Amino acid sequence: MQWDATNARPSDDFLKFTTWPVESHWTNFLAKNDSLQPQATQAWINYLDKVQATPGLYLARNTEQLHSQWLYKKYASINRLEEGKYLIDNTNMPDIVYENKLLGNLVFIVNTGQGEKISHASLDGSPLLLRYKSHGKSFLYLPPLGKKQYILEIKTGPGLPEVYIDYIGTYNIYNTKLSPDNLEFDIKMYGSQKIDIHCPLPDTVISNNPFLEITDYYYNVNDGILTITLSGRDMQGESGRVIVGRF
């Protein structure tokens, strides 16, 4: 695919790619004239949707997540110890990655069956609250991993935990902390986006960064979902901590 070709996409035979990642350029997303742009846009949507639907592949939400996945794939190892229990060895991650703060979330694919969900997930005993489901695959988002070994435990079933975050945007949520009264999470927000949190009715929703502004939030009593609209000033990503308090 030429870098300056309009409305151009790589092959969709993803498993035969010899280089990762595969790059595209802005011109590749554009049609030759405005009247053809809706068709070009839809063709790209269909292409990326096929990436997400392919077993073993994951469509990264942003550039940081893409690079992090590449680093984990190259330097970390994941071994199944028993049903639903895995050893993640990240001891080979280069120091330069931490010195330059290059590492974000590790995305773990769980192939759930019809009607199955991730009913429980924990990393070294701490609950994993950030998740997403698409094309019959469930995705767990682990916090940025240190240079050590971890135990990941996963249980699947028909039910879901009382509190979890449905990853619907292109922001990055890193560490999450759940207590009987509060949910806290560290986030890097790009622009203005919504966050859906399944939880009991909260009393307060607070950001610790005035430039990471909570512009709106509401609670759907029927669905048990808190929707927060966050807006960041920094176009490179506004970082801060959000506290959802007193369930």
**Unreliable residue runs:** none
**Structure annotation, total helices:** 3
Rg, nearest Å: 19 Å
**CATH fold field value of the largest domain:** Immunoglobulin-like
Domain count: the total is 2
Share in β-strands:
35-45%
User: Between the first and last Cα atoms, what is the distance in angstroms?
Assistant: 52 Å
Listing every helix as H and every strand as E from the N terminus to the C terminus, the arrangement reads HHEEHEEEEEEEEEEEEEE
What composes the largest sheet?
A: 7 strands, mixed
Mean pLDDT: 93
Shape: globular
Helix content: 10-25%
Give the class from helix and strand content and strand pairing.
Answer: mainly beta
| CATH class membership of the largest domain | Mainly Beta
The CATH architecture of the largest domain would be: Sandwich
Strand order of the largest sheet: 3-7-6-9-12-15-14
Number of strands: 16
